[in-house]
Design goal:
This protein has helices spanning about 15-25, 55-65, 80-95, 100, 125-135, 155-165, and strands spanning about 5-10, 30-35, 65-75, 110-115, 140-145. The protein has a five-stranded parallel beta sheet with strand order 2-1-3-4-5. β4 (about 110-115), α5 (about 125-135) and β5 (about 140-145) form a beta-alpha-beta unit. By secondary structure, it is α/β, with parallel strands linked by helices. The longest helix has 15 residues, at about 80-95.
């Protein structure tokens, strides 16, 4: 099983976020979860969820990987709604399933963001960085792709080399 898990928060399975995941991960072994394909409800304080809620599936999948990469389009200057729901549900791990959250310690976290602005909005990476910090994971940075601009093969090779620097050569 690959050490890398990419969690795609896009509302389109074959949209720009997936396109850039594909470009960035050429020749890289990874598993991927698409939030669009899995049902889980928003966090609630009573921690009562129906049987069809699939959040526990994510808990298990995330624990099997050493490197977590969150990939999200920029929607209204923030992560996608699906990604936000996932982050909100991490509260379950902190409050009810503390053994799960403790098993996240030491994992690496990175971010792939895709949008149409020249740069990421101020504060965009804050939830990713702060969540990793809170759960004692190692936030290793982000890469932003402007889907309106072309990335050359040379630029992509440099981005890939830097982004995946944790993989032994």
């Amino acid at each position: 099983m690959p050490d890398i898990l990419i969690i795609n928060g896009s509302a389109r399975l074959n949209g720009n976020t997936q396109k850039f995941i594909g470009k960035l991960t050429e020749e890289i072994a990874f598993n991927q979860l698409n939030l669009l394909e899995h049902h889980f409800l928003p966090y609630n304080y009573e921690n009562q969820y129906p049987a069809e809620d699939r959040f526990d599936f994510f808990a298990k999948e995330i624990l099997y990987h050493k490197h977590l990469i969150f990939a999200t389009p920029v929607y209204w200057y923030a992560m996608s709604g699906r990604m936000k729901t996932l982050f909100d549900r991490l509260t379950d791990w902190v409050t009810l399933n503390k053994e799960v959250s403790r098993n996240l310690k030491g994992k690496t976290v990175q971010l792939i963001a895709v949008g149409t602005d020249a740069d990421l909005p101020d504060g965009f990476i804050t939830p990713f960085y702060m969540t990793a910090n809170y759960m004692e994971m190692d936030y290793r940075g982000h890469v932003y792709f402007n889907s309106d601009e072309t990335v050359t093969d040379e630029e992509l090779a440099e981005i890939r080399k830097s982004f995946f620097s944790f993989i032994p050569a």
